[in-house]
Every structure is written in structure tokens, then in C-alpha cells.
Amino acid sequence: MTAVKVHGGIDILRLPVNQEEHVFHPWHIKYTQSHILHSKCSKSENGCGNKDSDACQFCIFSHTLELPHMPDMVFPNNILTLKHQDGAFIQFNALDALKTVSNGKINVQLACAEAWKESRSESSEYLEEKVKPFDWTFTTTYTGTISNFEIQETNERIDVDKLKRREKILFYHDLTLFEDELHDNGIAVCSVKIRVMPSSFFILLRYFLRIDGVMLRINDTRLYHEFGQDYILREYTSREAKVGEIRAPPSLFVEPSEIASYLPLTRCHYHKLIMMLNKTESITNDELTNEIVTDNEATSANICETNSFVT
Length: 311
Ligand SMILES: [Zn+2]
Known about the structure:
Radius of gyration: 20 Å
Strand content: 25-35%
Protein name: TIP41-like protein
InterPro entries: Phosphatase_reg/MetRdx (IPR051330), TIP41-like (IPR007303)
Low-confidence stretches: 1-9, 107-112, 123-131, 281-287, 291-303
Largest sheet: 8 strands, antiparallel
Shape: globular
Mean pLDDT: 82
Distance between the termini: 41 Å
GO cellular component, one term: cytosol
Number of strands: 16
Number of domains: 1
Strand order of the largest sheet: 5-10-11-12-13-14-15-9
Order of helices and strands: EEEEHEEEHHEEHEEEEEHEE
Number of helices: 5
Family: Belongs to the TIP41 family.
Bound molecules: zinc ion
């Protein structure tokens, strides 16, 4: 294996993968955490083959996503996994999160698009449009990778009051999946955090975008499970606003949890993930469904309740 040297000569391929696993019967909760994705193939000058079963992580990401540019920092080993003893499986990982980024179209109309484009194009390829358009904000509608669940729409909501109640936290962790500083024009970051209490667990997967002077966007997925029940509640919300329309002090623009309540809701989905008994002993990647959320416009406050600011 050819070592890739970056960050002051540290061999990132040799850095250990940090991991922890906890059993909260009947759930196994595990995270792994390690270095960022390399900036080039770590195996060969020509890159790993498309069908190379032993391809390096860089090539797996490149071949799968085909994005003209990857975020500044991608954490391929930052993975949170929950497995139920009867087969239900939930995972949060960067590759699946980036799969929902629009490739081939840009979904943000910017007041400062031209200025931004220039700042982005230290190589002139953007101006010459040699690079196919893609969503350089890396906006993702990822809600997690799940298997062995039946998904139903629901009117049941996460009990926010219950979550706010002081309860002992048995386990807490947060992981960044990817991050990009938009060439110093703001930030796009996708992260996931989990906390496990004696009665339940709660997960927040958050994509946060701030384009300085232009707009903010927050796509949140919340999962809540009360131990003993056979389902998980999953709420997805998307909020965004132009900076000029946000009635909040700009100091809050760097605090996603603080600013969220000032951003109007644009989309939401409420689902019940009902656990199914496992059909097979082992779960392979092929069986995992990486769900893509369909666009339900949030047209009514009655449909999209705005009370879930638990973080
Ligand atoms: Zn490779």
C-alpha cells in the first residue's frame, strides 16, 4: 500500500480508527471515527479500477459520487451504527449523505452568484464552465441509511417535553460526516449526534449551510425511540431564509441550534419506522436502502409543526 503523506508528514492511512460500542439491550450502538478522506488515490498513480473490489476510499467516493469537487473535509470512517437484535439497522455515513447532493444542477440562486463563482475559480475552469454544474453547497436531504424497517407516515410526534426532562445521559457522541468552508464564504457541514437515556435514544442528523451575506439553510432529521416500543419516530425538516429576511442578530448565524427557530420551515416529513424481524442473519450493503426524501412542500403550519427544536 502506498502511503499518502499529508498534514505535516503524518501518514493518515496509519492513524487508528477510534471506535466504541455499547449495548443498550436489545440495541447495539457503535461509532467509528478517523481521519479525513485523502485527496487522491492511495494505491496507484492511475487510480483504482471502477470495479476493483479492493478500491481505496478515495476511489470509492469518486466513482460513486462523480462530483466535480468533494467537500474540503470528508470523514469516510465517521460512522454511527445502531443494530437491533431482531435485525433493524440504522446507520449514518458520509458516502450515503453525499449521494443526495445534486449533481448536474445547482439549486441555489444567489444574489452574489457571480462574485462567489469568481472566488471559487482560482482555477479558471468554473468561468469557462469546463466543470459540469453541481451543488457546491453540498445540500443533502439524507435521513440515514436504514434496513429492516417498514416506513409509515404518522401523526405521532416526538415528545419534546419528555426529551427536555432531565434524564441521565448514558451515552453521547457527535460525528462530523463532511464539511466545506465554501472558499471562506461560509460553511456547509453535515453532522450527527446521539444521546442515549435510560428510557430512550435520540439522534439528530443536521446539515447546516451558511453562505455569508446570502442565506442560511438547515436540514434536520430527528430520530426518537422509546425502549420497549417496536418503532422509531423520524422527523425531517428543512428550513431556510435569505439573510436579509432573518429577524435575528447576526451573531446567531453561526449557531445552528439558536438560529433554527428563526428560519421558516420549507419542507417536512414525519415517519414511523416500524421494526421488522430480520429475514437473514447478516445484512449486506446491497440490502440497505438509502432513502431519498421526496419533496413535500410545507404549505401549512398544521401539517408541519414547528415545535421540534430539541438538539
Ligand atoms: Zn484508489
